[in-house]
Amino acid sequence: MTASHPDAWAAVDRYLAETLVGSDPALDATLASQDRAHLRPIEVAPVAGKLLHLLVRISRARRVLEIGTLAGYSAIWMARALPADGRLISIEAEPANAALARENVDAAGVGERVDIRIGRAADVLPGLADEAPFDLVFIDADKESNTVYLDWAARLSQPGAVIVVDNIGRSGEVANADTDDPQIQGVRGGLAMLGEDPRFDATGLQTVGVKGWDGLAIAVRV
């Protein structure tokens, strides 16, 4: 039996990606542009990108909110699942990242469905209150603000909306109640909110693979 260790996790992840996801020139080009820009490789793994794509389709989402754009990798995955008149609003704090993402979503042929808003998400989110509610929200930004983002996800979505929070495993440290790491404290606060706030019904999954030991939470807006 294969021993469980990071190399084996990555090998299985690559096998699943090759078998179920395949190669995609536009997504490959997005990752290459991210590397050239010296951005950290913190985008979702290909299998997770495909999961987001499927969740948009399964939920029949027409409006998607993404908090944390980076170079546009996950935005492309989700925008491709939207109907022709669907819209994805993605919030990015760094103008250079937003510009790169704009180039990538346009090159991928989904630019007309993607609206990239520049600024700190905590500042941008209140401005969305007068727009139509969202059907799916993907949270993948600074972990310290997870409770802020979840609160706005609940305010800006309608009952039945899907909410996904990335990077909840933190190499197992999420289970450490004594941690003084602000990112892990933020993740723990967000998970506590998902478990206690009556606006959410949620679960969490730990994952292993090319991104190491991590996880994600999936919730329904009640």
Automatic annotation (TrEMBL):
Annotated Pfam families: Methyltransf_3
GO biological process, alphabetically ordered: methylation
Keyword S-adenosyl-L-methionine: yes
One MF term in the entry's GO annotations: S-adenosylmethionine-dependent methyltransferase activity
Keyword Ribosomal protein applies: no
PROSITE patterns per the UniProt record, alphabetical: SAM_OMT_I
Keyword terms, alphabetized: Methyltransferase, S-adenosyl-L-methionine, Transferase
Gene3D superfamilies (UniProt xref): Vaccinia Virus protein VP39 (3.40.50.150)
Protein name, entry field: O-methyltransferase
